[in-house]
Predict the 3D structure of the following.
Amino acid sequence: MTADRVYLSPPDIGQLEEDRLVAALRSGWVAPLGPEVDAFERDLAERVGVAHGVALSSGTAGLHLGLIALGVRPGDVVLTSTMTFAATANAIVYTGAEPYFVDADPATGNMDPELLEQALAGVRELGERVGAIVPVDLLGKTADYTAIEEIAAAHGVPVLSDAAESLGATHAGRAAGSFGAASILSFNGNKVMTTSGGGALLTDDGDLAQHVRYLATQARQPVVHYEHTDIGYNYRLSNLLAALGRAQLSRLDEMIARRRALRDRYKRAFGDVTGVEVFGADGDEHDNAWLTSIVVDAEAAGWEPSELSAALAAENIESRPLWKPMHLQPVFAGARGEINGSSKRLFRTGLTLPSGSALRDEQVDRVFAAIDVFLGAR
Ligand SMILES: *Cc1c(COP(=O)(O)O)cnc(C)c1O
């Protein structure tokens, strides 16, 4: 019999989630909205330290409506990280704006503020309008918002923070999800916490929150006969899933602690291995350790990340390269950007390893045993 598959970041769901979900069902609030949604929005805002939360059907929906509510229009340029999941760039395209990709700080994979500055200057010189800047908090480490917010303010461009991966992280003493004019979170199944599919937009701006809530509920005017003056969307989170989200949020710190312990074990396992570094390990007490990756200098190490990946796959253990940068994706071929090769190098040299808080001890032991065998044979 082959051992069960070890995934990178499976959902971490237990008795509490089951109890809260059943309680929400039995309360009768099955129709989409209800008291759990309102409470989840308050819980999220409180956790992150912002005034308002809007619970949505996905992080992608949050990006889409956040951009619209910040005034992004067709024909605008929106600057974003090239090192991200496609959802960030897709949401920009949904608005009719053009994604313009900014390369990464090689230490973190996050948007390089100097390249952002160059990108802004370049686009402005062409006389084009920059609608927004969307930095992404890669693998749970926040972007350098100290630098980015200053640059954005100097150019008068709003920031929408893609904090889909970084709930629980901090930057300069502030929580991920509290930066920019608004931030979005994702509760997809592989994220640090899940609603089995969901997201949120967080902001201190009450009008912005109200506008996003309105657009997400089909842009219904507050009258009984369904009056519409805007194009709306059906992007709200359901009451049942919000109940699941509240249970997960109450366990967030415990789940992050488990991911951190795994990160520490990877640091020990690769500590003296020539040519291998745990990605972003510098200052990692500030990130939520969502996913742990290694970066391999193949010449120094004597092996390629793909070789370790194959050895893990033979033991039914999942591993993956870092996000393939957007400027290298066929669908964004020809897109403009401020590119210096950092993200391409990270894509070639990085490997993401099982990192989830739901991994059982014996699964974790299997991962480290496979790594030991692989390293022992080099
Ligand atoms: C997961 C993710 C999203 C999309 O969130 P969904 O809830 O899956 O729509 C957006 N951006 C980043 C960086 C992500 O990792």
Observations:
- The longest strand covers residues 52-56.
- The chain is about 40% helix and 15% strand.
- The chain has two domains: 15-250, 252-377.
